[in-house]
Amino acid sequence: MSYMIFRLQKAVKSNLTLICMALALALSFGVLYLNARNSRTLTLEVQTAENLAQEEDAVHKMQKDLSKYSKSGDAYKLTKESIAENKGEIRKNQELLRLLKEKKWQQAYKHKIADIQKFKRLAQSEDKSDPELIASLNREILLFSYLKKHPQPYQTDQPSKGIQFLFNLNEIYLPIIFALMGVFILSQLATDSYRQRYDLTSLLPGSRLADLGEKIAANFLTLLGVFLLINLLAFILASLFYGLGSWDYPYLVYHWHGGKSYPAYIASWRLLAPALCLQLLLLLQLASLTELIAKIIRDKFPTLLIVLLLTVGLNLCVYVIVPVTKVAQWLPSTYLNCLSVSSNSLAQQVNNQAIDFNHGVITLTVTIIITCFLLLLPSLGKRKRLA
Prior knowledge:
Helix content: over 70%
Strand order of the largest sheet: 1-2
Oligomer: single chain
């Protein structure tokens, strides 16, 4: 226990840890600032007001053009019809804007769903309809249907409120950044006890099993502390400036049926437990893997390079190399983005439905067991020789 505490103190006092923390927090606060700035122009109220202004401008221009046409001509009739249609859209947008300002969410979302369905019908009526556009409109219908059923304010895809910002940060930005940061910190920590490729901790009294346990525990607690601190500070700052958010706000997930993925929305809190479970296993796997590579290589920079290739490198290969994608469910590096795995969005993105929470737990657990066994193997062999 004393060695574990000593190692944790070294990690806390390390300049590298402080630099990595500062960079991660700077990134988080920068993303929060950009999200807050962009979200002001992406709210439903702003979008509706812009649509209303465009419709009014269009009506004004068409009314000017009427004087150019003969009242008995087709152009005059078509323009009159367009004016009437646009005025109808103006009334709808005015009504939607009123409902949003009065926070009558159910009625407002009912209007919004009707508008999207109308646009979807127009898109489907075209000869060459865009499948991606149709899929996007279907997701919007599902989103606003959920919000209609569970009335609450709409938040943009670039949220700034505490809870939603935390989910956004951990889905898009932190997975790779945190993996890079963790590998740098652990590589220094795990190789610091080697001098000319000799492990100084082997001179300490006590069993090798206890020594190994303390090393992995120190690595794990270091990663866990850094991860929690970054998320906690980001959450507090976002909540203080922009509000807490909602645990019931919808989160996009995918369900698989018959080899096809289907989108759905569930409350955000339902993803919390599986994502945290995977995150803890991932931290433990990274802690044990770095210790194993350090024990084999016994040099800081080669250890850093190899662990980076086995984690971040393989994770990026999942997206671009088809043979790797097919077996990605058995690669621990696939599960760096715990939220995307838990929501099945990663499986949908790479078209491998086997990448899910269950496979993640199995793969990471088996990898941890194998890694720990390999770490203990030299000690077990030494015991047999002494016996």
